[in-house]
């Protein structure tokens, strides 16, 4: 929270863009061997600088070292390895189903890099949400400029220092800065833009991209609900939900945002939250050392205002400390549908419980709002599960746990509707930055068969078609 970020001078941005484009045009990112070498280098960047990344994230987000390993460093190592091992397979041309009319022209789909791409990242998961998309861009053979978040100066400075040292500095570049720098980047014509962040900025990104007809991938957020089946083991549900809510201090796009629970089960669920809270934080010291902080004072103020103005009852936590940007894990019960806590994504360690009479009401409630990025269901009843899954739509769905979809190497990170579109992660990342190009090679001798297509259209030729 003390680091200063050196913003990229605005006048340098067009030059950086031109250099990346020029680098791409050399064609050296085409060979698979080059892409693998760059991915290997990316792996070394994290392996050789582990401590610097944990320190940077501790400085930016007050993140405990264990969380940085669990949430970012361990997964990114696996994702890079996956990209390294799979790029050859992903890049292979694909055949199409046998077509009697055209098989002699050997039709196939070849995978072309889209070109020079822009990746704009958020503050909450700088490695997973900025570097993981870069894995896809490298694997696809693209050049890329990344713009990390200005809210995490230590980590964004580290990217600016290390990426040119480890990767091909002509093709992979970092621009640091805030709105002005992003705006300047967005004025340029990219071959793809991948943006991760909030939906309001996503509209600005999409409008800027539309000026150049540039395709976009938008990774956004929203309010991800949890539905509780009262017959579930509520102590287990509470422990898993609370873990998802306190990890990274609730600043996760797929954090459980609110809980829908029958009124009859609310008190048992709260008892579960209280027990889990005690288990996670036996002493106040554990609380301070095992929890991330809120990224910036304006986000702290936003969350504090929510706590001060909710009409629900705080049953766990509720304390906060602005000097330390710390908010205690807080559970609020009897929250009404129109409460301040239910207006927008909370993105902090506050968990409202909205009593909901039955499953139909819970489903209707979810469907009356934007499609969420994640939907969590706690039940062991297969009919309950399928009723929820078959009657709702969300970016992803997890039964009886939270967050795990983001750690799975082959799942695309993808929203739907206002929670985003497109995706990356595993092969989806490669596909995002790849143009699937239909390819045919038509031999000259095939004119024996193709002749009828040429004028003049005599009756004999028409019969032959
Ligand atoms: P943020 O404030 O770090 O902003 C994200 C990026 O947008 C930054 O790089 C920032 O510089 C840039 N930006 C800000 N204003 C801009 C403007 N006017 N024009 C152009 N660029 C601008 O992070 P945030 O937006 O607060 O991120 C939190 C949101 O991101 C939450 O809604 C969260 O759910 C979502 N998120 C989604 C995913 C996902 O994978 N779907 C992952 C992480 C976060």
Give descriptors for this structure:
single chain; 465 residues; alpha/beta; Aldehyde Dehydrogenase, Chain A, domain 1; Aldehyde Dehydrogenase, Chain A, domain 2; 2 domains; seven-stranded mixed β-sheet; six-stranded mixed β-sheet; 17 helices; 16% strand; globular; binds nicotinamide-adenine-dinucleotide
Account of the 3D structure:
This is Aldehyde dehydrogenase. Keywords: NAD, Oxidoreductase. InterPro entries: Ald_DH/histidinol_DH, Ald_DH_C, Ald_DH_CS_GLU, Ald_DH_N, Aldehyde_DH_dom, Aldehyde_DH_NAD(P). Strand 15 (374-378), helix 14 and strand 16 (396-399) form a beta-alpha-beta unit. It contains 17 helices and 18 strands. Helix 3 (50-61) runs antiparallel to helix 6 and helix 9 (234-246) crosses helix 10. The protein is α/β, with parallel strands linked by helices. It has two domains: 11-219 and 427-438, 3-Layer(aba) Sandwich (Aldehyde Dehydrogenase, Chain A, domain 1); 225-411, 3-Layer(aba) Sandwich (Aldehyde Dehydrogenase, Chain A, domain 2), CATH 3.40.309. Strands 10-13-14-9-8-15-16 form a seven-stranded mixed beta sheet, sandwiched between helices. It has a six-stranded mixed beta sheet with strand order 5-4-3-6-7-17, with helices on both faces. The site of nicotinamide-adenine-dinucleotide has 30 residues, from helix 7 and helix 8. Nicotinamide-adenine-dinucleotide is lined by residues 120-125, 129, 147, 149-151, 178-179, 182-183, 196-198, 201, 204, 219-221, 253, 345, 347, 373, 413, 415, 420.
